[in-house]
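Tokens in:
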């Protein structure tokens, strides 16, 4: 049974930083075999891509404009954990943040939620103005 568990969310003020973590577990599950992504979903909106990381972590992708330059995805394969460092947070970053794992080739369909095979339950991030 594969589990992805996000943590690190909370209520912060605009301009603050947060670091989200996603811990993966499962008897034979290793995140080193997966492209890992972060998505978010605001109330009344569709789930949207935030960032993704190749299996080694050497390559990353970010949602254009909205988070690039402020958010950083990283991973520690040895600890089966993926991170999302979020700086200069804005009220429009308020959402539930999800991590996900994909067996697809990095860079081809990272933006697509249907490309991901496993999902966490999400962690709430609220940014007040």
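Residues out:
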């Amino acid at each position: 049974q594969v589990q992805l568990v996000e943590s690190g969310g909370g209520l912060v003020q605009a301009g603050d930083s947060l670091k989200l973590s996603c811990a993966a577990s499962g008897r034979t599950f290793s995140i080193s075999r997966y492209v890992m992504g972060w998505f978010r979903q605001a109330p009344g909106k569709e789930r949207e891509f935030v960032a993704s990381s190749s299996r080694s972590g050497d390559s990353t992708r970010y949602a254009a404009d909205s988070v690039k330059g402020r958010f950083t995805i990283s991973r520690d394969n040895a600890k089966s954990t993926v991170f999302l460092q979020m700086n200069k947070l804005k009220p429009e970053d308020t959402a539930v943040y999800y991590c996900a794992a994909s067996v697809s080739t990095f860079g081809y369909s990272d933006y697509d939620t249907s490309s991901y095979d496993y999902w966490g339950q999400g962690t709430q991030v609220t940014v007040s103005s």
